[in-house]
Design brief:
Layout: H1 2-22, H2 28-35, H3 41-75
Length: about 80
């Protein structure tokens, strides 16, 4: 049981690290708005869907990480 929880913890932590590093900063969008933005509407929607997928992956892996950590502490 402990090995399975540790595997979930390692996988969740790797996904959490990768999804945080792949996200762009919130201030990056402001410069595009001021400069006029050369992207079309479709390009913006594509970027938003990619960013929303990363945000969902970050939230899910953070929840799994916390739950796996709590279970691991309770087992030990």
């Amino acid at each position: 049981m402990e090995i399975v929880v540790r595997i979930f913890l390692i996988i969740a932590s790797l996904i959490l690290i990768a999804s945080i590093l792949l996200q762009s900063g919130k201030s990056a969008g402001l410069s595009g708005e001021i400069a006029g933005g050369a992207e079309s509407i479709w390009g913006k929607n594509k970027g938003r869907s990619y960013e929303s997928k990363l945000e969902k992956a970050t939230a899910a892996s953070a929840i799994i990480f916390v739950i796996a950590s709590l279970i691991l502490v309770a087992i030990q």
